[in-house]
Design brief:
Blueprint lengths: L1 H36 L7 H31 L3 H19 L5 H12 L10
Helix pairs in contact: 2-3
Length: about 120
């Protein structure tokens, strides 16, 4: 019971902080984010985003390295073509990071232009 009460108090304190900093609208966005993401944490969305940045960067780095290795192994791509791929990959990743497009946009474009269905698993 003590842990439950502490959790409720922590949640109320976080909600108060969010409202003080960004108003009711910020709290509504926070609730929507938590419902969609299923992330339950003591951090507000903006603090969580800051904490997740290094993880996102590492994820992009590892996907890029695996992509380069796969392209080299399967298609015998050399340095010049792999560097071109890295540049385009970084450009597309930047578009996602800067909210110029969304993951559903990427999935739709891949499907529309190639017929390949890609599925992104959101907290399944």
């Amino acid at each position: 019971m003590a842990d439950y009460s502490k959790g409720r108090n922590d949640g109320l304190a976080l909600a108060l902080k969010i409202v003080k900093e960004g108003g009711i609208e910020a709290l509504e966005k926070e609730i929507q984010f938590r419902n969609v993401s299923q992330i339950h944490t003591g951090l507000a969305h903006k603090d969580l985003e800051k904490a997740l940045d290094p993880i996102k960067q590492m994820t992009l780095d590892t996907v890029l390295a695996l992509s380069l290795l796969s392209l080299r192994d399967e298609f015998d791509m050399g340095k010049v073509r792999l560097e071109r791929f890295m540049g385009r990959f970084s450009e597309k990743a930047g578009c996602i990071a800067d909210d110029l497009c969304s993951w559903p946009d990427v999935v739709k474009t891949v499907h529309d232009e190639t017929g390949i269905g890609v599925k992104i698993r959101y907290n399944e």
